[in-house]
Structures are given as C-alpha cells and as structure tokens.
Amino acid sequence: MNIGAAEHLCPLPHPCGTGLQALMQIVTICEFSYLGLFMKLRSSASLTMGCILLSLVACSDKKDAAEPAGTAKQQPTITVYSERVEHLIKPLFDQYTEETGVPIRFITDGAGPLIARLENEGEATPADILITVDAGNLWQATDKGLLRAIESPLLETNVPAHLQASGNEWFGLSARARTIVYSTERVKPEELSTYEALGAPKWEGRLCLRTAKKVYNQSLVATMINTLGAEKTEEIVKTWVANLATDPYSNDTVALEAVIAGQCDLAIVNTYYFGRMQKENPNIPLAVFWPNQDGRGVHVNISGAGITKHAKHPEAAQKLLEWLSSEEAQYKFAEANEEYPVNPRVKPSPLVQAWGEFKADLVNVEAAGHLQSEAVKLMDRAGYR
Asked: Which fold is adopted by the domain 176-299+374-381?
C-alpha cells in the first residue's frame, strides 16, 4: 500500500498544529475508516501507521496554513523586585501590559531583603528588574555585582546625568528633595537659610530629625561629605544633634506630626511626606523651605531601577524602563507619590508645583552610595543615632 492509496481510502481532517490530541483523533478516524477492510488485512496496525505518516507529511507541507504569518508570539513575563510599594507601581504596570501585551509579575519588599534575595538566588533569580528608593540602595546593588550596564540612548536622554549611575547600571525614575519643613505658626521663612544654619543657637530645642539608621539621612550626610568634606560635615551634624528637641523619630511622618503638635518647630524630611499630609489637609500649618539656594542647592535623591545581572528577559526589561522614563509614564509615576518627574520635559503635579521652584544640588546621587559607609560612621561619632 502506498501513500497515495492511503490518502484516498482515509480522508483525514487537517491536523497540523493541533498536537497529540489531533494525532490520536487521526488514528481513530483511520481505524474506523478501515473497519470494513479488517477481514482483508492481517493487521490494522499497518494501516493506522500509514495514516499517521501521512498526517506528518501533510503537516510538513502545510506549515504556513497551521501557523499563519503574523501570528503573535507569546510575550515574556517581566519579573520586578520592587521596594516601591504596590499601589505606586501596579497602575503603571497594568497600563504597560494593556498597551504592549507584556505581562509583569512583581514582588515588593524592603531594599535590604530584596538585595539579599538577589544575592542568594544568583543565576537562578527570576528577577529582571530591581526598583528601590534612594540611590544609596541602588549603589549597593551595583557594588555587589547584582545589576548590569544598560545601553540605552533613550534613558540617557530622559534621565539627567546626575540622577543615573556613571556606569549605566541604574537610572532614576522619580526625584524627591530632602528639605526643611517648618511650622507656619512659630517660624518665619526669613529666619531660615541653609542646612548648616539649623545648628545655630536660635534653633536649640526646636529641631526634629528622623533616625540616622534610615538611608535618607545617610544619603544627605554622604552628599555633604562629598561637597564640604568629612571634618566640616561632622561639625555640622554635631550642632544638629545639640539642637534636637527630642530623640530622632522613626520616620518623617512622625517628625512632621511632632512639628504640628508643637514638640519642635522644624524638621528635615522628604518632600513627598509633606505632600501626602498636605493632600489630606490643605490647611496643614506647615510649609516647605528650600535651603542653600545661594550655594550648592537642595539635596535631591531618587527612586530608580536597574536590570539584574542574571535577567532572563533583559531586552523586555529595558523596554519597560524606557517606557517608565517616557513623557507618557513620568507624570503618573511621580504624581502617585507627590514626587518630581526625572524627565525634564514633564512637569510635576499641581500640588508639587505649588511649592515653588528651587535650585537642586547637582552632585551625582551616586555619592550617596559610595560615601554611605563613611556617613554612617560620621553620624555615629557625632552622636546622631
């Protein structure tokens, strides 16, 4: 029996691209088609095998029919490890998936646990992207060899040079200023000038600070070391400690609440903490002051991201980061947390714009990382806990 005879006797449905289930269907059809011939054949197995072979030949000849041109390939799932919490990133990830069809899986945790997880997982990590707050954390991840260099002219264009790693391992996606917030009931803005001046005798017992254990103040001190030197910075920090109204607080929100309650008159905080409180209560008796406008400017830090060294989908991950830096996404990324877009072509939200423009310190935020260890030691010597 030849193939031609088999094709004539066993008219087959087109099976191509339907897998094992379709192949078994072919076998069944063939067996029933030749049921009346079993008396003339010694074995039905021969005929059945012939039908199977025929189906394979048909599939080979009709590949284009089974897989039409233009059929979309399944998109890779991007996995993100994020210190930025769910409600700040999920809406953007959902939008990106809707626009591109690329699924995004994310895990949120603190920077320390996420970096440790990447170290422990090594080449087996599923993570393609690491998002953290504060450049100091991104620098640590880079220093541990957990991030790869990104070659992207688009990211270079969208993110200012001082808000990205010198080796292109990470890029800022939003910016925040760590500035002075004061009581509008007990402080006049003309009384304020610089970070350094917060150590003046007139502020004794009137200053609130967040604990030195948090990376935000470590980064502030690290950039001061970069500009002023360690000796001068230590002198300044000692005067801050001498003027504290109480022991440092666990977070910026509590420090601001202390100012409102009259426990102190001013504090150094990240702007978005003030923004959150002001959004809930527009009449809050607090205001932002931009220090060092005649000198180096206000300390600025970032929330940023990099592609992991062992990313399984680095190209897809890069496209996501490029989109997050675009004009389309930047407003939403920053506005969700009352921050500043890093893309200079995008304006901040009306609430943030109302705080006024300021001169920012243009020292590369990378300094917050490589001088972090020295900053921690300096703060400890100064009695800042």
From this structure: D-Maltodextrin-Binding Protein; domain 2 (3.40.190)
